[in-house]
Amino acid sequence: MTTDRRTFLGASLGATATIASCTNALMTSAQADPVQTSTFNDNISWDPAVRATAAGDFGHMISKRPRAVFRPASGADIARLMRWAKDDGLKVAARGQGHSIYGRALAEDGVVIDMGAISKVHHVETDRIIVDAGATWKTVLEASLAQGLTPPVLTHYLGLSVGGTLSVGGIGAMSLRHGMQTDQVIELDVVTGDGRELTCSAASNPELFDAVRAGLGQCGIITRATLKLVRAPERVRRYQLFYPDLASLTADQRRALHEQRFDQLQGAILPDGNDGWRYQLEGAVFYSGEAAPDNNAVLAALADERRAAIISDLSYHNDALAFAKFEQLLRSKGQWTNPQPWLLTFLRDNNAEQIAREIVEGMSPTHIGPFGRITYYPLHTGAIHTPMLRRPDEPIVFAFNLIRIPASDDTLTAGILVAQNRGLYDRIRKAGGVLYPVSAFSMTPADWRDHFGLRWPQLTEAKRRYDPANLLTPGYNLFG
Description:
By secondary structure, the protein is α+β, with helices and mostly antiparallel strands. The protein has three domains: 17-115, Uridine Diphospho-n-acetylenolpyruvylglucosamine Reductase, domain 2 (2-Layer Sandwich), CATH 3.30.43; 121-231, Uridine Diphospho-n-acetylenolpyruvylglucosamine Reductase, domain 3 (2-Layer Sandwich); 235-435, FAD-linked oxidases, C-terminal domain (Vanillyl-alcohol Oxidase, Chain A, domain 3). The protein contains 17 helices and 19 strands. The strands form four sheets. The chain has an eight-stranded antiparallel beta sheet. It starts with a helix and ends in a 14-residue tail after the last helix. Mean pLDDT is 91; it is low at 12-38.
């Protein structure tokens, strides 16, 4: 097996949020108000190169050039900006690390807020960490692990920002036990669309708390978060098991989930290099000290092709950073900056295998790319309590994600795959599936009303109360 292939197979399975002229309305408004000019001169850039950087994202398919890029030093700076933007009717988008897939964090002819400018870790306590929204999850992990602690749910790619993932949900390998990252939030500091600085939690401003978590940035900009921490394990024993078909993979995933064999349980359908597919279960067991897991007991009665199994043992820290090796591989192949037309969804438990099989049978591995994958795995939903995080209303759902990594930067092919995403989403939705809103295709306001379902009136009312001018995060097109 080649080194590249080992890195590909070993990558975590979640692969589960840049700017023409200074003679615009924003500059005109600043010139008309000397106080505001003084306030924002050090924070706003109209430089063409800076604006160009904020015109695109990780998806490399959508380009929307803002009038300006704003680098705040605090939440108060963002509040002042929002009051200013409201006066001029300017759209505003918060940009963390620029990892949105389809222009969701862009603001054409508006203002992009560079949230990376506020990225400090403020406090680490025995059960919580307080961080700025622009901090990455890698920063959060490093700070918490220094105290022997960890967030209960980590994204697979730790280069994402805290505010970015909390705005969409934040799924990770531990979501089967702990829910989403939004379920780990104790308190948030938020700047609303009308320029107010508010602190919210389950007990204080709960309407805003529920509207901001997984609310797609429609009601406020998260500036600081207080997050739960738990004791971190010392080591991770990781099992990669392979199957001849989807049915046997699904059966063992269900068995492992029911019997709680793994602390992490995922799976994937992988291109096999010969225009076919390979089926993979990936499980992990956490442990500390000398209490290493018994491999025979962990794998007992599973029907995988045992001779092909890959078993590895890493420190918890190194295991959490494993995706960085996959990123390096993609960068070395020139594929990190290619278009990334991904589709992420949840399938109903009772028809997940059927829907997944039909879609895979109608798809060529070239639609995924040599280093892409279709992630497919079950998780319990009992720990998911975030109101705006939509998923099938069942005890178990299957994550089903097309992690497309095309071999070239052919924009025509990318457009074809985006159109395919739309068709597949309609098919999945008709079968009772639900979108995880980090996907590459356009959604209309009517689509979003359908997506949020019974939660739509709640979100609409929060939008009216906290962003009445409809300025925030225009890339989703929720409210037209």
